[in-house]
Design goal:
146 residues; five-stranded antiparallel β-sheet
């Protein structure tokens, strides 16, 4: 979390081994951990499926579905750490595999809204995490009042 270049060893590293990097990513780690804590799917080791898209050589995409099927995420990763790369889904709901509303839960550069026709120019090394949750409608029996 401090951006050290020297490899640390859990047994032999001492405080004197710390390098003065001027880098502190502890706030970013706290934000990521808070996001992870807020979503059940991010705490499950469930199936991952690769999602194909036109810029596959530079952008890696996968979706994950929770064990009970109620939550889904679509992770979009720019593998290119030097250049912007485009990604496009004509139907982002199809890519994530859900008819429910899709929201961005990314830790950085979070989008205010996610268009069904999703097109975005990813920053170098950027990761986008899109989330969808099935809405459970209350079940009514014939004769029940609404």
């Amino acid at each position: 979390e401090n951006g050290c270049r020297k490899r640390l060893n859990v047994v032999t590293t001492t405080p004197s081994d710390m390098e003065p990097t001027g880098t502190d990513i502890s706030d970013a780690i706290k934000k990521i951990n808070a996001i992870k804590k807020s979503y059940k799917i991010l705490n499950e080791e469930c199936n991952l499926e690769i999602v194909d898209q036109a810029n596959w050589s530079n952008v890696f995409c996968f979706r994950k579905t929770s064990f009970d099927g109620s939550e889904r995420i679509l992770v979009i990763l720019n593998k290119d750490v030097n250049n912007y790369q485009g990604v496009h889904f004509e139907n982002v709901n199809g890519a994530i595999g859900s008819d429910s509303k899709v929201v961005d839960i990314s830790p950085m550069y979070t989008l205010d809204a996610v268009s069904p026709n999703f097109e975005y120019n990813l920053r170098p090394g950027q990761v986008i995490v899109l989330y969808s949750k099935k809405i459970k409608w209350p079940e009514f029996l014939p004769g029940d009042e609404l």
